[in-house]
Design goal:
Length: about 300
């Protein structure tokens, strides 16, 4: 198999051959966006979207009758898929399960044809599912947290990670918060990633106890920013960069430069319309260089203790 950029190029240039049924079906009723609008969105941003999903086991959110009806968070194979990859692996519980992954644009559009709106990849690939190649700190503002505090929180995480020698990258979620993504190369065993994520979150909470919380009990989160470090284990997922969200307004999870953080107004500043416009205007990838970052956690966990 081809590696890296070469493979990405051949993956992108393959023509899409998927028949879309019910293209006029309205899937975002508040905004009148149709299934064809969703197809057109993913097609137009495909070269930006693929690097974040190709060859990663991926859970999807399917809304076959649109976002006003039932949506399903689906971890496993959907019968009938032809262009989507599948891989059978051991579950966390020890049982075997079949996961899906996108190979190319055809896979993505086939999933959209099957009603998928959101893509949630693992932090590892089908080749090395036991080695994380990214870590995600999911910043979830509780009720009564004003947006500038979320901005400050992300900025602080960025700074503290940099002090440990770790480069990190910023993404809106298309929802309420932000993700701070740490690429890992070489890949890192999930146990170590989990330990680091927990220890780092605990350190931040200890230093800023009024601002942050890292325990999962919902009641205590009000007025604080929950650092959801639990996104970091084998089989856990986070929303893909450039994925749509199945929420009113058709918001999108969008990678940003750190220098753009200050002008953000929310975690859902970008949507199905504004995201392609943003990408058409960009001179370079806001996450440029992420594939060249070489960093792992081995030497760093000790620094936190
Ligand atoms: P927000 O900024 O609104 O928090 P988010 O994408 O970070 O958006 P979270 O609720 O914090 O949303 O969830 C974090 C991640 O957990 C999701 O992106 C998703 O990948 C994953 N997840 C795990 N199980 C589910 C589920 N049943 N339904 C939805 N997401 C799930
Ligand atoms: Mn979140
Ligand atoms: Mn969360």
């Amino acid at each position: 198999r081809k590696a890296g950029a070469e493979r990405r190029k051949s993956v992108e240039s393959k023509p899409i051959d998927i028949k879309i049924t019910h293209p006029d079906r309205v899937v975002y009723p508040d905004d009148s966006y149709t299934k064809q609008d969703v197809v057109d969105y993913y097609t137009s941003i495909m070269k930006w979207f693929l690097p974040g999903v190709v060859d990663r086991p991926t859970s999807v959110i399917r809304c076959p009758e649109g976002t006003a009806k039932a949506c399903f968070f689906q971890k496993h194979l959907i019968p009938g898929l032809k262009q989507v990859g599948s891989v059978t692996m051991k579950e966390e519980s020890g049982a075997r399960a079949t996961y899906i992954y996108s190979r190319d644009a055809g896979s993505v559009i086939e999933l959209v044809q099957f009603g998928v709106l959101e893509f949630h990849p693992w932090g590892s690939t089908i080749e090395q599912p036991d080695l994380a190649n990214q870590l995600v700190f999911d910043l979830d503002p509780g009720d009564d947290v004003a947006w500038p505090r979320v901005v400050a929180a992300a900025r602080l995480m960025h700074k503290l990670l940099a002090q440990l020698g770790l480069a990190s990258f910023l993404r809106t979620t298309g929802g309420k918060g932000l993700h701070v993504v740490v690429p890992l190369n070489p890949g890192c065993a999930w146990a170590q990633v989990k330990d680091f994520a927990h220890a780092f979150a605990a350190t931040v909470v200890q230093a800023h106890p009024l601002e942050f919380i890292a325990t999962a009990t919902k009641a205590q989160r009000s007025g604080k920013i929950y650092i959801d470090y639990l996104r970091n284990s084998r089989g856990a997922t986070s929303v893909a960069s450039y994925s749509l969200r199945a929420r009113s307004g058709a918001p999108v999870a969008v990678p940003l430069r750190w220098s753009e953080l200050g002008k953000l107004k929310s975690g859902h500043d970008f949507d199905i319309r504004s995201t392609p416009r943003r990408l058409a205007r960009l001179r370079s990838d806001p996450w440029a260089g992420i594939d060249d970052v070489r960093q792992d956690l081995g030497a760093i966990i000790g620094k936190l203790r």
